[in-house]
Structure formats: structure tokens, C-alpha cells
Amino acid sequence: MKKNIFILIFLIQLIGCTGARFVKLEKLGEWESKQFKKDLIGILSKTNPRFLDNVIEGLNIPNNLITLMSTNDMVIIQSLDRNYQSDVDLQLVIQRGLISKLLYRNIPVLERDINILLALLAESSINYNSSNLLSIYSDTHNDSLIKFNQPSKLKEATKILGYRVLEFGYLIVPLNDGMIERIGIIEIELRLIDALSSRILYSDILRNIYSDRISNDDYNIIDGLHFKFVSDALPLVKQEKAKDLIQLELEKREVSNAGIIKLTFLYGARESDVKIRNSITGELIKKFFIPSAGAANSDIYTYELKLVDSNGKPLPPGDYSIYIDDILVHRFIY
Fold first, then answer.
1. What's the pLDDT score for residue 281?
2. Which of 5-9, 113-117, 124-128, 228-232 has the lowest mean pLDDT?
3. In a domain, 247, yes or no
4. Is 144 among the domain residues?
5. What is the pLDDT of residue 28?
6. Which positions ≥6 away from 185 have C-beta within 8 Å?
7. Residues 259, 330 contacting (CB under 8 angstroms)
8. Which of 109, 123, 125, 222 has its CA 20 to 30 A from that of 240?
9. What is this structure's pTM?
């Protein structure tokens, strides 16, 4: 009789100390995601040289300067800086912007690039058979004049639009929101000269400030962007692979509404430890506790499991297991 009483008391104690029990699993939501493709062409349009083009583009040539030139004029654009004190590449950038602005106003502009002029003068005398002589500035540090004694049909300038670069460049300002602001400035002196009399018709200083915003990621791409030219190789000649390729993430998956699984448990007489692991690798996915029944107002405890890892990335499809106090109680596949 005492033995039976002892067994009964033991069973009552055992039942009273049981933990939570698993009831069921419900799938509440599906994955919803968006695919974002990087606009590589858009990124290339934001390079620093294109930014400087925009700085020049915003430079307004005053109407009182434009009215001093007509469609009957032949204008050349010439740097007023001494060649050995200036950046030739910078001059080409400024000249390109000024040429575009004059052509937009239908004002004729003559070519004065030394290499192109030499190529033109090398053409046959049939095309260049007039008696006009052409004079241009040389690219040497002496700023000497080169006089081509070869007969040419090239036009002589009637007006010279001279310029001197006072300020041209940009600043990079990191912002707190992961963006970068570029602030560009151009300040040049413009002088219009009558080519026949050397009379100065116009002189002024023009300025423009331009800014834009670009993401830090895109700026890191374009900041190191350059082109590598690979020459053709003969058959069977092995070429070395480029070592400076830029790896771009073409697509990005952004989770807008993660899949959710609803887990239902019955409270136990004591607190229970619940773990969810990958059934194959054993990797711990989620861990939480279910309080004892005495701390609850009902018999049912529910837990919503978002199918994302600790980094917020979607869990890979697979086999997962639910453990209560390290005892396997359920497996599911999604």
C-alpha cells in the first residue's frame, strides 16, 4: 500500500513539473521581395569628369558678350595662360564647354588644335590652294608663333575669345545619410578681342557653382573607374587577364515582407527553453523561452517566427527542427 502511494505521489510531482508542449505550426505569410538592378549606365553618367562638364554647362555667357559676335564672325578660343604654367588637359575641358555654348548660339568657331591643323595642312593642294597664310600659337614653352607658309584655304579669325582659368575644381563632402555631396566651382576671366585690330571688346570674370549628391557606394565605384585597353593578340598567344576589374553587384534582393511561421504551444508547469535549428547542419536559428503556466492568463502560448537570420537575410529553404528543453518535438520544411 505504501508503495502505491509513493508511486502516485511521484507521478503527481512529475506531471506538475512538465514543461511546455508543442501543438501546431501555421504558415502565416509568403516571401515578398523586390529585385533592384544597379543602373550601371546611370553610374557612369555620374563620373567626376561628367560632373565637371555640368559645372561648365552651368556657366552662363552674358548676352552683352554674345551680341558682340555674329554669324558672320569667325571665332577662335584661346587660353590666355602661358602654356608652361597651365594644364593642357584642363584647357581642353574649358574649350569644349565654350565651343558648345558658341555653336548653340550659331556663332562659327574655327579649329585651332595644333594636331588637327597640321593634319589639314598636309592635305593636297587641290583642297587648300588659296593664298591665305595661317598663324597659330605653338605648344612650346616660349609661346612663339608658328607661321605656315604653305598656301591654305583655312579661314582667318575675326574675333578671339580668350580665357584664363582662375578657379576650377570640386570638393567632396561626406554626409551622415550615406550620401556624398560634390560641390564644383568654375571661375574664369573672359576677354573678347578683335583679331584684326587687337582691340579688347569685352572683359569680365564669370563664375558658377554646381553641386549634386551621390551615394557613397556609387562614388567608390566611379572614383576608381578607368578603362584598360587590351590589344589584339595573334592566335595561340595567351593574354594576361586584367587585374583591375571592378566587381559590381548587379542585383540586390530586398525583403519587404518576410515569411512568418506561427508556432503554438501549451504552457507547462515550469519555464521551457525552445530552440529552432537547421536539421542538417544543426545551426541554431532562433532561441526563446516559454514562461510557466502560473505567469499566463491562458493555456496557449504563441510565437511568430520570422524566416530571417540574425543579419536580416532570408533563411535558405530547408529542413528545420523544433526542440523543447533539448528534446525534438517537431520538424518542418519550407
1. 85
2. 5-9
3. no
4. no
5. 64
6. 55, 167, 168, 169, 170, 207, 208, 209, 210
7. no
8. 222
9. 0.53
